[in-house]
Specification:
Keywords: Membrane, Transmembrane, Transmembrane helix. 84% of the residues lie in helices and 0% in strands. It has two helices and no strands. The chain starts with 5 loop residues before the first helix and ends with a helix.
């Protein structure tokens, strides 16, 4: 049985690590700033995905 939280968690981690990778290697930003940006992306992404899942859950309960 697959968890309903696996895909949002996977997306959040992927975008966070990808942001860190892009900033630290291609943009030559310092490691600390790249890590901070990755954490900010993870926070924003998890908040957005949480709102989307809550909205879907509320819409399905109205039927």
């Amino acid at each position: 049985m697959r968890s309903k939280t696996f895909l949002p968690m996977f997306i959040t981690v992927f975008l966070s690590v990808f942001t860190y990778y892009l900033l630290s290697t291609w943009a030559s930003v310092s490691e600390n700033k790249s890590m901070a940006a990755g954490v900010l992306v993870a926070i924003l992404c998890s908040g957005i995905l949480k709102r989307i899942s809550d909205k879907k859950r509320n819409d399905s309960n109205k039927d």
